[in-house]
Write a structure and sequence with these properties.
Layout lengths: L1 H49 L4 H11 L22 H4 L28 E8 L5 E11 L2 E17 L5 E20 L5 E16 L15 H5 L1 E14 L12 E15 L6 E2 L5 E12 L2 E11 L11 E11 L2 E10 L2 E12 L2 E10 L7 E11 L5 H19 L4 H20 L5 H26 L1
Antiparallel strand pairs: 1-2, 1-15, 2-3, 3-4, 4-5, 5-6, 6-7, 7-8, 7-9, 9-10, 10-11, 11-12, 12-13, 13-14, 14-15
């Protein structure tokens, strides 16, 4: 009885010790995130204070980037499609076409849903200029090599109309709302070469213009807003190639991605109340980019974009460039910085991403000279809920376990153990196939082992002939 009590007491002490260790680890994690947030605020505070009226800085930057100024800027409709949803994508300068390792892929490369590690639900809030904002809700799920996703986003800005005497006549919101469906598939996915993912996104967008007043009577004209509202239908197409290149660290994920995408290919229609007609061109663009993880904790992304005016090719805007970098400081805290050049004015951004109990949070600050004569700063927030990988990581662990057991058996060298090794490697190959991945090491090992058995048979036959 005393022995049983002592065992229970020891188990209780062990459990309490593990609980205290977890509690201390979580407390340290909270303290680190709090400290990192303070540092982030300290770094961005000077920009937030002075970025409102840095005309001298703006003038110097305009001199440097003046040759990139574009006379065709603003010649397309549904401009909100060019506004970042915020979060990590904006922190990396929106250079995402060649990365797509989380749900931020939606507005950049539709092939991304086929390669996500986890199913995700995400909410983004981007506090834009002049009291405008972008709200986005996204969800994506992966079934082995098949990925699907949904996105709902809304850009809105207060619309207030006054007459010549300063009296308020109408108050409402101008908005652009989009609903998108995504599907992608990763072809010839393997252990060494991660495959070629291809996908598409179809999107419908509605531009809501509020009714406005008659200049003579100051009365709201019914249907006047509907006449200038618009409905757009468009599609995105993209591919993503993933493989290892000069990789100096151990990881299942590849360290080099290349992406190519065609975004916002479609038409818009307006004049619903009176004259139904084709609207101006959508902000169609061709994008190419890559990402390279130089070290396990250091990531670089780069992207080039060429806008295309489908209504008048000669009115297409000039190309734009974006780049970003990410440092994984700990397993739950990352720091990002990005740069984008579109037209003659640049955009600088910094952000941090931290993990709290399966929720990825991101805070981003952007100094933006692309949207106003004076520098404008804004902040975006993002929350991503990770819903797991549908058991793929557990299956992958079993694959490695079977493969390792096969190596141990093969190392013994005798015929019986080589056959057992082939059985283990076959199990590893079949398990990997069940999650849509060709496990090249097992396939190569099976071939080598069978060749060795054939040599054994030839030697045995040669000996029996003698």
């Amino acid at each position: 009885m005393i022995k049983k009590f002592n065992i229970q007491k020891q188990d209780s002490i062990h459990t309490d010790t593990k609980f205290m260790q977890k509690k201390q680890h979580f407390a340290k994690k909270q303290a680190f995130i709090f400290l990192a947030t303070l540092v982030f605020n300290a770094v961005t505070a000077p920009f937030c204070v002075f970025a409102l009226d840095l005309k001298d800085v703006n003038s110097k930057l305009s001199d440097v980037f003046g040759s990139f100024s574009d006379s065709n800027e603003g010649s397309t409709v549904f401009r909100s499609l060019n506004i970042p949803t915020g979060g990590r994508s904006e922190s990396l300068g929106t250079a995402i076409t060649g990365l797509c390792d989380d749900i931020n892929f939606f507005d950049y490369n539709p092939a991304g849903s086929a390669v996500l590690s986890n199913s995700e639900i995400a909410f983004f809030h981007n506090s834009w200029i002049a009291d405008s904002a972008m709200e986005t809700l996204e969800g994506s799920m992966r079934f082995n090599n098949l990925g699907i996703g949904l996105q709902l986003k809304c850009f809105y800005v207060p619309f207030t109309e006054y007459n010549l005497f300063g009296d308020k006549l109408a108050g409402n919101y101008y908005s652009e709302t989009s609903l998108a469906f995504n599907m992608a598939y990763n072809f010839i996915a393997g252990y060494n070469f991660k495959g070629i993912a291809a996908g598409y996104t179809v999107r419908a967008s509605w531009r809501n213009m509020p009714d406005y007043a008659d200049n003579q009577t100051d009365k709201i004209k019914s249907g006047s807003g509907l006449e200038q509202s618009a409905l757009g239908f468009m599609a995105d197409f993209g591919i993503l190639v993933r493989f290892n290149f000069l990789k100096n660290f151990s990881s299942f994920e590849p360290n080099f991605n290349f992406g190519l995408a065609l975004n916002n290919l479609g038409l818009a229609f307006t004049g619903f109340s009176k004259n139904f007609e084709l609207d101006d061109s959508l902000p169609t663009r061709i994008s190419a980019g890559f990402s390279y993880r130089l070290f396990k904790n250091l990531l670089f992304t780069t992207e080039f974009r060429q806008p295309v005016n489908l209504m008048n090719f000669s009115s297409s805007q000039k190309f734009s460039f974006a780049s970003g970098a990410e440092i994984n400081i700990t397993d739950f805290f990352d720091f990002e910085a990005g740069f984008m050049l579109s037209g003659g004015n640049p955009r600088f951004s910094i952000g941090s991403q931290f993990d709290i109990k399966g929720i990825k949070m991101n805070v981003n600050y952007t100094l933006d000279l692309t949207t106003s004569f004076n520098p404008v700063n804004h902040i975006s927030l993002a929350a991503r809920l990770l819903l797991g990988d549908r058991g793929r990581s557990k299956t992958r662990a079993m694959v490695y376990e079977k493969y390792t057991e096969g190596i141990e058996l093969y190392s013994k060298g005798d015929r019986q153990n080589i056959k057992k090794a082939i059985e283990k490697w076959t199990e590893a190959k079949n398990l990997s196939s069940s999650i849509g991945i060709k496990f090249d090491p097992a396939i190569e090992a099976i071939t080598a082992a069978q060749d060795l058995l054939n040599v054994h048979d030839q030697i045995k036959n040669f000996g029996s002939l003698n």
